[in-house]
Specification:
- By secondary structure, the protein is of the alpha+beta class.
- It has three domains: 101 residues, Butyryl-Coa Dehydrogenase, subunit A, domain 1 (Orthogonal Bundle); 100 residues, Beta Barrel (Butyryl-CoA Dehydrogenase, subunit A, domain 2); 154 residues, Butyryl-CoA Dehydrogenase, subunit A, domain 3 (Up-down Bundle).
- Helix content is 53%, strand content 16%.
- The chain has twelve helices and ten strands.
- The strands form three sheets. The protein has a four-stranded mixed beta sheet.
- A hairpin with a 5-residue loop joins strand 4 and strand 5.
Length: 365
């Protein structure tokens, strides 16, 4: 596909994602949100239709930016299902499971994090014990989005040799217990206990689970920046409307320099972050190595979103800190993306390691 055709595809996909997010903004059930994404072809186009057999990273960034502000349930359903199915795409050989997810318009989930294994994924302790019928899982996963809504979980566990292996697990088993974790963003987040749960299949080869997990996170990290931008866009829209309508001292508050400064800084940060997010996504789609750029995209996008949400709270004044108010909810939701899929502090460390190997980093980038 030439550059003009690709840009046309991206513009059309943006319009579809934006319009669906607008129409479905009152759909708060994440399973229903997932079905809408399947019905409108967005889930399929981002996750399953790419001829490379990998997610369409640019489409993922576009959809997440369009949905994260007005329709967080759609963003959650798309991104987490993408994390759950991408190891299957990378490993190959599990087409029947992918077909089942698509046929049922279902969700999937990615179960890597544990109470004592967050950024240090290699420290996980969940065990997969072989018996005559395959493997049984024993252990606890924590902070697992869609852990109770997914049809399948992609679970990472240690096998008998101590290697980390990825397994496909059907969630609806009595040996799997889920507990919802209350969180600031209000998303479907769970602790999952495996007490002899059966695995459906090995994803890839035994012992290559960590590689599959890190490769998957690498594909999705830039899109977390897009999520932050989407939250920030919604905050900026609300702040602009407030600046125009709110009057103090016989003038709109948008005429005050301090308010203008908040609006301009939000806009510039979001605009800059979007450029880096799209560049990282384009490089990933082209098969290029883009780890430091993806880390930069996550940092810039999520932090621009947080600053825009904080600025909106300031512009709304007292109403901005009401818990049920629109901008305070955005501020709450803007915090978690700076933590998951590699905390921003860790991403800065990774970027610093890369920088110290360069002589002219902007040229190398």
């Amino acid at each position: 596909m030439d550059g003009y055709a690709e840009r046309g595809r991206e513009r059309a996909f943006w319009a579809r994602s934006r319009d669906l997010a607008s129409r479905a903004s009152d759909v708060h059930d994440v399973r229903a949100a997932g079905r809408l994404l399947w019905d409108h072809g967005i889930m399929h186009e981002v996750l399953l239709a790419n001829p490379t057999g990998k997610p369409w990273c640019t489409g993922l960034a576009i959809a997440r930016e369009a949905m994260a502000g007005p329709w967080p349930e759609g963003d959650l359903a798309l991104s987490v299902t993408g994390l759950g199915v991408t190891p299957l795409l990378l490993a190959g050989g599990l087409q029947s499971s992918l077909d089942e997810i698509a046929a049922q318009k279902a969700l999937a989930a990615f179960a890597l994090t544990e109470p004592d294994a967050g950024s240090d994924a290699a420290a996980l302790t969940t065990r997969a014990v072989r018996d005559g019928r395959g493997y049984q899982l024993h252990g606890v996963k924590r902070f697992i989005s869609l852990g109770d809504e997914a049809l399948f979980l992609t679970v990472f566990a240690r096998t008998g040799e101590g290697n980390i292996t990825a397994f496909l697990v059907r969630r609806a088993q009595p040996e799997i217990q889920t507990t919802m974790l209350e969180n600031a963003g209000g998303e479907a987040l769970y602790s999952i206990e495996f007490d002899g749960a059966r695995t459906e299949a090995i994803v890839g080869l035994e012992g290559e689970g960590l590689r599959l997990a890190l490769t998957t996170l690498g594909f999705f990290r830039a899109s977390v920046g897009a999520q932050g931008i989407g939250i920030g866009r919604q905050a900026l829209r609300l702040a602009l409307a407030r600046a125009a309508s709110r009057r103090q001292f016989n003038r709109s508050i948008g005429s005050f320099g301090e308010v203008q400064s908040l609006l301009v800084e939000s806009y510039l940060a979001l605009l800059t972050a979007r450029s880096v997010v799209r560049d990282a996504a384009d490089r990933l789609d082209a098969g290029e190595e883009a780890s430091q750029l993806s880390s930069a995209a996550k940092i810039l996008g999520t932090e621009a979103g947080s600053r825009a949400a904080d600025a909106a709270v300031a512009i709304f004044g007292g109403e901005g800190v009401l818990r049920d108010g629109p901008v305070f909810r955005l501020l709450e939701r803007s915090r978690a993306p700076r933590i998951y899929e590699g905390a921003n502090e860790l991403q800065r460390h990774l970027v610093a390691r890369w920088l110290l190997r360069q002589t002219d980093p902007l040229e190398e980038a």
